[in-house]
Amino acid sequence: MITAVTELDPITSSGTTGTMSFTPKDRSDWRTYILGGFRIQLLQTFGKPPSDEDLNDKLHVCWPTHADGHTAFYRSPMYFKEYFAKGVTRTSTR
Question: Is pTM, for the whole model, over 0.70?
Answer without folding.
Answer: no
